[in-house]
User: What shape does this take?
Amino acid sequence: MNILIRMGFSLMMLFTLLGCSNVEEDTSKSTSNNIITKSNNREEPPAIKLKIGKDEIITYRGIYSWSYFDKSTGQVVTVEADHAPPTEMVNIEQGVKANIAETVKLDFEKEPTQYEIKVWDNNNVVATYNTFEEIKEKGKYIVEIVGTWEGSTATYVTALDIQ
Assistant: This one.
């Protein structure tokens, strides 16, 4: 019986030591991520404003994977939010009339390193563009704006009746 207690205690110590070494290893791996994202202390993706001509178009934030540096813990935190697909977020039939030949202004609270614009019909992406000026489609479409920041991505969705 005494041998079983010693073996149990030894195994518990072994697992504790192994567990501590893994935690230390994970922390050292995330140090490089801390350097990359220390400049980002926003806890969620930035808001955007889409203005076509004089009209401000409402957009809805969709899915995102957002990493930020939490000053209180000194760690990089990643938040992943799932959402319905763009075709279920907005009603294509209620698209706002938009003449994209007019000035299109896309303002991010924090400018992304890059973004793309996906044009959806009722079911699928029909085209992907880098600017609104490139869009060739006319009629009712769902527009998904996909922004990318250092290690983070967020989507924004609206329905437009493109003139």
Summary: Strands lie at 48-52, 55-57, 60-70, 75-81, 96-98, 104-108, 114-120, 125-129, 139-149, 152-162. The first strand starts at residue 48 and ends at 52. The chain is about 25% helix and 40% strand.
